[in-house]
Specification:
3 helices, 7-stranded antiparallel sheet, 18 strands, 266 residues, elongated, alpha+beta
Length: 266
């Protein structure tokens, strides 16, 4: 029965991981540009090689029944990002920029590390550089931040990312895609590090100009569906309870079996 307890326990752990993922998604339901996380699991087959060759059972009237598929545990395999687009909501703020289609903004910290993001709620820092809410500077196509001088005029950002004040062009926001821009390529190359930021971990990733459009005065909403996540939350909670009940029942059966063996031997 002990193997059954391990299977039920691993199922409980898997549902806890699932609950954590869903809770994180729900907590970011209203976070601009947030992409929901999904968890994947894998079966872990017990290693029976130490028992010996199956040929040892030949000629035995009642050989031991070894079925590894009856004792499969599950473990969290990975968490990946769903890159489905969120809705575009008009805000009217000149430095709220949403990406229509595929693409990622490039932002840089003070020591030169580059990150990628869909979160387009920008502002001007104390030096007039276009920056995100974490004070990371938005990079232009020339690899440098874009500075907005303290001059009079309307700040505008075109669909292709050209930043201008009046008739003066200040730079062009670098909107890029990784690989073919699909979720599989993005998940293979990027790691979510929080606050809507992603780190590039694949040194061989192909980075190219995106064909997406920048919409000034709009924000991309989260792609989390509250109804779907709540249904998943309820399902995971129920499955967790069932696994806990199964583990408890198997433990009680083990305890009863031990008592019966003692009675027979006595």
């Amino acid at each position: 029965m002990a193997n059954g307890i391990y299977v039920a326990s691993s199922g409980s752990k898997a549902q806890l991981d699932r609950l954590e993922t869903v809770s994180h998604n729900l907590a970011n339901l209203m976070t601009a540009g947030f992409k929901r996380q999904e968890a994947t699991y894998q079966e872990v087959q017990n290693d029976f090689s130490s028992i010996g060759s199956p040929d040892q059972a030949m000629g035995v009237r009642t050989p031991n029944r070894i079925l590894p598929q009856d004792r499969m545990r599950v473990e969290l395999n990975d968490r990946f990002t769903s890159w489905a687009p969120g809705s575009l909501d008009e805000t009217g703020n000149v430095l709220d920029l949403a990406i229509e289609g595929n693409g990622l903004f490039k932002v840089q910290d003070e020591v030169g590390n580059v990150f990628y993001s869909r979160h387009g709620r920008f502002q001007l820092d104390k030096n007039g550089m276009i920056s995100n809410q974490s004070d990371l500077r938005v990079l232009g196509v020339d690899g440098a931040p874009i500075r907005v001088p303290p001059t009079q005029g309307l700040l505008s950002v075109s669909y292709d990312g050209r930043v201008s004040v009046g008739e003066t062009q200040l730079g062009q926001i670098d909107l890029v895609t990784i690989g073919d821009g699909t979720g599989s390529d993005l998940n293979k190359s990027l790691t979510h590090i929080g606050e809507g930021l992603y780190r590039l971990d694949d040194e061989n990733a192909v980075i190219s100009k995106s064909d997406g459009l920048i919409r000034q005065g709009f924000m991309e909403g989260s792609n989390v569906n509250a109804v779907t996540e709540m249904m998943t939350l309820l399902s995971a909670s129920r499955l967790f309870d069932l696994n806990q009940q199964a583990a408890k029942a198997m433990g009680e059966m083990d305890s009863q079996a031990a008592k019966d063996v003692a009675l027979v031997q006595g």
